[in-house]
Amino acid sequence: MISALFDNLKLAFGTFVAHPLRTMLTLLGIVIGVATVMTMMALLEGLRVKVNKDFSQLGANVFRIDKWPQGFRFGGGGIDWNKISRRKSLTVADKRAIAEQCPSVLRTAASSWQPGQKVRTANSETQPSVFIIGATVEYPETSGITVASGRMFNDTEELDGRRVAVLGPDVADKLFPSLDPIGQEVRLRNRPYTVVGIMERRGKLMGMFNLDNQVLVPMSTFLSQYGKRRGVSVSIEAIDRDHLEKAMEEATRVMRQRREVPPMDENDFETSTNESMAKSLNDLSNVVTAATFGVCILSLIVGGIGILNIMLVSVTERTREIGIRKALGAKKNRILMQFATEAVVLSLVGGVIGIAIGFGLAFLGRWTFGLYTSVPVWSVVLSLGMSSGVGLVFGIYPAARAAKLDPIEAMRAE
C-alpha cells in the first residue's frame, strides 16, 4: 500500500514536471483562493486579537452611558436614528449625580470630543487630524490613559476653566521634536494652552483609531471654546468586576429618574461596556469572515473546474499508457488511485503555494502598512483541507473514467 502510494506520487510529480505551464495555469484558481483565505484570516484574526487587547486595557469593570448607540450595526441595526437624535444630551451634572447616588460606583468621568483639529506652536503645526478631548479629571482612570511625564490637570484648573493641556505622544513629537514639551505653549483655535503633561503611548485602537494623536483639556475650558451646549459621554467605573451589573442598574435608575422616563418606556440613553463593544466588533469580524469564505469557495470551485479539465485531458492523452498498465495487470482501483492522487497532489501544491503567498502578504501588510496581522493555525489547516478536498472532488470523475477504460481499446488509441 505504501509502495503504491509512493509510485502514484512519483507519477504525479513526473506529470507536473512534464507539463509545467499547464500545471501552473491549473493551479492558479487554487492559489488565488487559498492566498485570499490566508490573507483575510490574518487580517481579521489580527484585528480580533488587537480589539480584545485594546478593550481589555480600558478596564473590565468600566461602562459608558451615551446619547448615541455604540458599536457597529449593519443596515442601521433596526434603529430609529431620527428618534435617537431627539434625545436630550448627557451633561456633566449627570456624571455628578451618578457619582453621588450610586454606591457601587467607584468613580465617574465625563468627556466630549472635537475631531479634525490643528494644534500649533510658533514654529510648527500638526495635520488637521488631532482629537481634542474635553474631560474631567477622572477621565484617565476610566479610559486606560497614563500620564507618562508631567501631570494631569487638577480639579482647580477644571473648575477655573484654565487653558492647560495634556498632549498625546504623537502631537508632542510633532510640535516639540527637540524640546521638553512640559511648560511649553500650544494653540488651539488661536488660543494659548500651557502643556502640563504627556500621555503614555498606546498605539491604535483596532488598528485604526490613533490614541496617541489626542489632546486632553479641562471640560469647562473645552465647553467654553467648542460650545457650552455640547453633550458628553459618561464613563463609569464600578468598585470591582463583581459590582459591574449592580453599578449599571444603579446608574440606569438614576438616569431614568433625572430624564423623567416613564416606568414602562425604554431608556432614552445607551449603556455599553467595553466587552459589549468588543463583542460588536467581533460580530462584524465574523460576518466579514463568512463573506470572505464565500468568495474564496467560488475561487476554489473555479480552480477545481480547472483540475477537472486538466485531468480529463490527461486521461485522454494517456489512454494508451492506461491500456498498457491494465494489460500488465494493473487493477481498476490502482488506476483510480493513480489519477485521484494526481488531482489531490495538484491541488495540495496549489494550497501550499497559496499559503506561502498569504503569509507573505500578511507580513508585508504588517511591515509596510503597520497592519496588525496574525495568521491562525486553524486557517492553515483549513486551507490545506479545502484545497485537497477540491482536488479529490473534482478528480474523482476523471480517475473513474480512466479506471473504466477497456485495456484492448485503450491500447489501440493513438
Question: How is this structure best described in words?
Answer:
The protein is an alpha+beta fold. 57% of the residues lie in helices and 16% in strands. The protein is built from 14 helices and 13 strands. The strands form two sheets. Strands 1, 2, 3, 4, 5, 6, 7, 8, 11, 12 and 13 form an eleven-stranded mixed β-sheet that branches. A hairpin with a 3-residue loop joins strand 9 and strand 10 (209-210). The longest helix is centred in the last third of the chain and has 44 residues, at 274-317. The protein is elongated. 36% of the residues are buried. The mean pLDDT is 81.
Which terms would index this structure?
414 residues; alpha+beta; eleven-stranded mixed beta sheet; 13 strands; 16% strand
Question: What is the helix/strand order?
Answer: HHEHHEEEHEHEHEEEEEHEHEHHHHH
Q: Quick check: average pLDDT?
A: 81
Number of strands: 13
Oligomer: single chain
For the biggest sheet, the summary is:
11 strands, mixed
In terms of per-residue confidence, which ranges show pLDDT below 50 for 5 or more consecutive residues? none
Helix content: 55-70%
SS content category: alpha+beta
The outline comes out as elongated
Radius of gyration, rounded? 32 Å
| Number of discrete helical segments | 14
What's the N-to-C terminus distance? 32 Å
What is the beta-strand fraction?
15-25%
